[in-house]
Amino acid sequence: MTVRDIIKRAFLVEIIKGMALTLKMMFTKPVTIQYPEERRRVYEGFRGRHAFVRDAVSGKEKCIGCMKCANICPAQCITIAKEKIENKLVVVKYDIEALRCIYCGYCVEVCPVCALVLTEEYEYSSTDKAALYFDKEKLLKNWDEFAAKQQSETYFNKFWRPDGVDSAKMPKSKREQGPVPTRPVLKPAEPAPVAAMPKETAQP
Amino acid sequence: MNPSPYNFTWPFSPPDNIVLVIAIILGKILVMVAAAMLHVAYCTWFERKIIGHMQVRIGPNRVGPFGLLQPIADGIKLFFKEDVIPRPGVGSTKFRIVFKVAPLLVLFATLSSLAVVPVFEAFYIANINIGLLYILALSAVSTYGIIMAGWASDSKYAFLGSLRSSAQLISYEVAMGLSLVGVMMLAGSLNFIDIVKAQQTSWHGMYLIPQFLGYFVFMVSALAETNRAPFDLPEAESELVAGYFVEYSGMRFALFFLGEYIAMIVMSCVAVLCFWGGWGLPPVLYKVVPALNDLPQSVKTFIEAVVFLCKVYSHLFLYYWIRATLPRYRYDQLMRIGWTVLIPLALVNIVITALVKYFF
Predict the structure, then answer these.
(1) Among A61, B61, B248, B268, which is disulfide-ready with B67 (CB 3.0 to 4.6 Å)?
(2) Which 8-state DSSP code applies to residue A99?
(3) Which tens digit of pLDDT belongs to each residue from B30-46?
(4) pLDDT, tens digit, 9 for 90 and up, residues B107-137
(5) How distant is the Cα of B54 from the closest Cα of chain A, in angstroms?
(6) CB pair distance less than 8 Å for B52 and A30
(7) How many folded domains does chain A comprise?
């Protein structure tokens, strides 16, 4: 032990340094975010409440029932039922159990038509299990609530084009997916049969 | 008449207005206890705020402006909580009465020490010649409360906590007593008022300067005596859950809590009275600012009380500051510091003080 060490120990240099630090910290601004009044900024890539992107033109979900999401889901929380109606494959049931979901975002990454999204919504806790069992209508409603809060006219989720995946290997619809409109789009009035559309797409 | 050792003569004739005298004493006690309770309540608030800001947090701010009503909310909560008393195990010889008495004993011991603390020269409950010794003795009594609590709880955590606490208190009482010997030698008295008056003879008006070694030893042992961080081993949360009061709930827990905080206040008062010149301003200040001498007596008394309280609060702040900074010591480190550092330092302080006092 050198003389320097002895002096350091005898005069409690380390303790005095530490106390100077805590005293200095006392006069800095607290870093606390007072939650209900203040909110933390939600960063890009945040994975929150599930939603179905509502197609701005048709007003319906974009899901084609390919089962990729249900197959990749590690928690197996997605249930899909399809039926052939009028010679067309229709997704009659699409359920996500939010209580089982682990928010990995694989379903969003894998979806070939970018129909699914994990929104930035995070305040949806409930004491009721049924409220966290999202069916198709609830998922679309989640999107409406989320889209209404968006400032910009368009929205693009970064998991629609996952990092590290060769975009050449993606299906065309996924590769060419651009930002989706957050407001219902009024279709330009051209032919008469489609003219009725806007009324139908007017969202709640 | 046969002289017997028990044949005392009443040392003074009772005063004519004995009822008034007793009423005044009771009033003083009431004021002191109420002030102490209020101080404890707002000590917790002050502590949480200080430690919060030192940890770059806010601290309590929800109940009332700046969280000022938080201690009241805490008190109400503790008061209405269920009082759980553990059933003694099969074959246990433990008594519930011990469990019930333990927190009262701790609170009694600490509250009684307030009796000899003079806030300013004319305000004290008892002006006894052995004030300092009385406080040291009562701080030893609270050890019994802690041991009783640990034993009667019938829980290994509580028991280990109380054993640690008793060993700690016994070790540090030695250092604390020795650290105050220097003050006693310089003042030639154990009476707090005499000690404060003796300090006024020097220009700086405090024993802190000649007795800095004693002050250091006293403050470290005061931390250990009151079971405060970094010597809060008896209630080491990470090891013993809460230590000796782990089985206590509601009001009985609150009594321990009150006892701990009052002990902290008492130790701060002793530090102020013995080392910081009590309620006195440095006499040199009266020479520099002669106008202070011309103030009316009531204003002077008010200033004295404010000065005393400010000094006590700064000591409480020191407690919280240390708590926010230092991690808890290990048990062997605690014992080593007590026996191999503090006690020799206190002895050296006594020798130096004695030599200085003898030769100068």
Answers:
(1) B61
(2) T
(3) 988 898 888 888 888 98
(4) 888 888 888 888 877 777 878 888 888 888 8
(5) 4
(6) yes
(7) 2
